[in-house]
Every structure is written in C-alpha cells, then in structure tokens.
Amino acid sequence: MAFVAAACMIALGIAQRTVFLEPASVSVSTTVEGNGPFTVIDGDALLAHEGAQTISLRGSGNTFMSYGRTADIEAWLGDIDFTRVTYDEDTKELSTAEVRGQTVNPMDQTRLPSMDSSGLPAAAPNPNPRGSDLWLDEWTGDNSLSATVNVPEGISILVATDGTAPAPKNIRISWPLDNSTPWAGPLIAGGGILLLVGLVLYLLALLHLRRSRGPRRNLPKGPRMPKLPKAPKPKMIKANQINGAQRKSIGRSSRIAVVPVLLVSGLALSGCSASFWPDLSAPASSSPTPTADATAPPEQFDELPPPAVTVPQLERIVRKIAVVANEADTSMNAELLPSRFTGPALLERQKDYQIRASFPEQPVLAPIPASPLEIILPQQNASWPRTAVTVILNEEDPTIAPMTLVLTQNSPRENYQVEYAITLAADATFPEVAPASIGAPPVAPDTKFLVMKPEDLAAAYGDVILKDTASEYYSLFDIEHDSFVPQVGVAATEKRRADLPTTTDLTVSNEPGPGPTVALGTIDSGAIVAVNMYQMESATPNDNGTVEFKASASKSLSGVEKTTKGVTSTRSDQLLFYVPAQGSDEKIRLLGFAHSLIAASEIP
C-alpha cells in the first residue's frame, strides 16, 4: 500500500508541473497600420490584466520607447497626429485608432509654423522624443525592443523611432500569470518519503521472514531415511564464457535498485523551485507596487494638480544637468550651457568663463553635484511653465555647502533649465515643505498673504544693504543670522572706500535684476522665494587724474588698465528667501545666495 500511495502522490505532483500546468503569461498583440511616426499605448491597454507589463516591439531601425503621464505625452505630441492603441473589452484584443493632433501649446514656440517663400506655412519637422525630461524612463534598441514596467493608472507608453521614420508596427503586451503549484513540492517530497518508508518496511518484512525459518524445537526421532546419492558438483563458469543475454540478466538486478534512487533524487531536486511550495511569508492578496511613481499622493489630494515631476524623474534630470555643468566648467565652453541653463544661472557661468580666461586667479564656481537630492519640491502644475526646487548635497566633498537649484520648464518639448543655482548659507534652516508626491502650490508674485510680496523682496533687501538699520524694511529681515549683508552691506562698502586712494570716489547702488520671481508655498503657509538683484559700483577719480587698476576680475571683463573717467561694475545676486505668512512673528530669512561679477566697463 505504501508503494501505491507513493506512486500516486509522485504522479500527481509531476502532473501538476506538466499536463495540468497553467500558462506562465497572457499576451495580446496587434499590427499598426500606416506609417505614422508616433504610437501611444494607452493606459487601459497596459492595465487590461494584473501584474507587470512586458511590452515587445518589432520594427525597422533604431526603436524607441518611453513611458510617462498620459497628459504629458499628449502635450508633448501637441499638433502631431499619432496612433492610439487601446484594449477592447468585448474582443479581448488590442485595437488601434488614428488621433488628430491638438492645438499647439501657446508656450511651445518650437512648433509654430514658419512661412516658406510662397507665404504659406512651412511644414515643421517632427521633434525627436529621445532625451525628453517628460519621460519617466526610456529605452532604445535596434529593430526590436522589449521592456518590463509596472505602471499605475494615468500612465501611457510612447513608441517611435526618431520622430520622422515610421514607428514600429508590431506591438505585443504580456502579463505574468500565477502558475505556481504549491502542492507539487509537498506531493513529490511526501511520495519520495513514503517510498523510502515502503522500502524500509519491505526490508523489515524480508528479515522477519528469514528469521522465521530458523531452528525449531527438537521433535521425536522417527525412522531414518535412506541416504540419497550425492548430486554432481556444477562446473565453474569463467567470466569470458558468459554470453550477452546472461550479462544483461546479471546487470539488470543491480540497475533495478539504482532506478528508484535516481528517480527520487531527481524529483527532490526539481522540487527546490519556489513555485513548488506554498508561500507562507506574504498574504495571497498582496499586489505589486507600481514602479512609475512609488510615492503616489494620498486619496485626499487627488483633486490637487499633480506635481511637476516625480522623484525618479527629477533625479534623472539633475544627473543630466550635472553632466553638462561639469563638462562646461572643465572646458570653460559657454556654448554647452544654454541647453541646461538660463537666466541668472546662465549669465553667471558665461561671465565666469570669460573672466577666468584672462584672470586664472578667479575662484572657480561651486560645482553642481548629481546626487543625492536632499530636498525635492516640485510645483503643483499640470500645465506650463513648470517649476521645481531641489537641494543637492555633495557626496564627494561634504565640506562644500549644499546647492539649491530652481528649475523651470517653459513648454512640453523643452527640457528643464537651471534658472537659479544658489549655495545654501552655512546656518540656513530650510522650512518644512510638502512631500514630493504632493508638491508645493505656486505663490503669485503679488500675493498679499505673506509678510511681504515676493515681487518686492529684491528692492526691500537692496534697501537694507544700502541703509542698514536706517532702512524701513530692516525689522522685517533676520539680519542677525544673515551671512550676506556683512559681505556687501554698509560696513563692507566703507571698508572698500578706505582701501581706495583718497583721489578715488566709490559709489554703490542696487536694483531688482531681470531674473523671474519664483515662489513656492511651504506647509506653514509661508513661501520659498528666489529673486535676482543687481548691485552696481563705480570708482571715479576726483582730482581729474588717472585711476589705475591692478589685475582683477573687473579688469579682465572691462579690459581697462588706466582711465580718467572711472570704471563701473555690476554684480548679479541670486537670492533664496523664506518669507513667513501674514500675521506670523517670524522674520524673512535668507537661505542662500550667489554673488558674481557679470559686467565691467569704463564709464562713458
């Protein structure tokens, strides 16, 4: 009975992994008609079944695939026609439909049609989707491509080549199925154990039978039987006299004992897979975590605009920016900067390269590290322009102060650019901000819900620099913990005057710079505000004599060695403030600054 039960258990266990085994995945596929350059696989097609989605493409040329928010993909496509792939619940198959492009985003000037020689709108070339900051991730391959993602709702996939050539036509989506057989392992193992138990019982039975044939009690002697003649002794057979059939019969008995051992061993080894055994470590109802945005906002925030970027998205953007900045800083090639820098941050580096070309003693600008991002504060915004603020630590040199980047994206097809690159002050305390999955609400420059309008910050702070305690705004700022005013304020200006010859006059002034005012809300209803301020300084002779300048950054930019008219210089200040809410007892705090020379010339 043990052998029969063992055979049944092993057979049933093997059958679960063979003839009764369910498919490992389910898939649907389609062939896109036409030669459109873009195809969008809709979110409903990706979520037609549970589990991670494996998308396989086959076409010709260098295949491209990316995934991102559906609204972002459609905004990037703009007025371009594309093919949408959806899932038909009735037929359980993929279906395709042509979609006409929408009106061009008003902020996206790259797609406004130009005029040809006949006065008609000229056809603009389609943009290349590779490297766009809108994508959460992207892949490329030659002729074919396969990638696995696990996306939540609201995510779609963009398929293309280079934006001009036809997109890959053959699309296949597959999802894994749970074809584990948790009882196969126990059945096979139990059958093997039962088989061994049966063998032991069989051997014990043979031993018992053999012992039962041993000597018995003495019985009464009866009449003796006559002796029988001796049987002739069999002849000894040598090994070389055994034929093939005899050898086979002799060897068979030894193999018979080996086969069960090999069978049990093979089945035991095959049962090592996790799919052969029950999973007692996690509940059966657990579901995979979406990888597109692992920090999804809670349900109570669903009605808010989405954050401008996700954490993985911003990390990838900052890495790209750091590569461009490092290459440009190393080679002092200002032509590399406009792809990732704009506004005050761009002007600062352009002028720094120009100064260092003839004045190597000029201190090198603080590098932009690639990671880690200590603070991530994206703007709540589903349209454009978009803004994000991040504070980056320097892992290679912890003595370097953290860098704050204020990034802006003006349109869907433009990448994020650094508007402000500000070094945090040593004793700066960053206010508490919302999680990156929720983002920060934008604050209008003219809002009255703060102790000071963001658009007035540059002028008010400049007045404090020029007048110190005599300024009407002095009491609104936390000057006690301000590390910038001592460098450029009244006391610093008087020291510079004292260092100049008595025949030279020094005049200083300041004004708000052309950089935009960027303000994002904090949890306590205050705001983080980035502004730009220009500080002007003029040195003129007061005795109709000549002013001579030593080697300096100003001399490098102006090219003036001696002058009877004097020299004027302009410095750009990138300033980051925390502005409390109206009614708060706190003061406006300077969180960080960047102070750089951007112009110098002889006074006309």
UniProtKB/TrEMBL annotation:
The chain crosses the membrane at residues 183-207, 256-277. Keywords: Membrane, Transmembrane, Transmembrane helix. Residues 282-298 have a biased composition (Low complexity). Residues 107-117 have a biased composition (Polar residues). InterPro entries: DUF8094 (IPR058407). Residues 107-127, 282-306 are annotated as: Disordered. The keyword Transmembrane applies. Residues 307-601 form the DUF8094 domain. This is DUF8094 domain-containing protein. The lineage of its organism: Bacteria, Bacillati, Actinomycetota, Actinomycetes, Micrococcales.
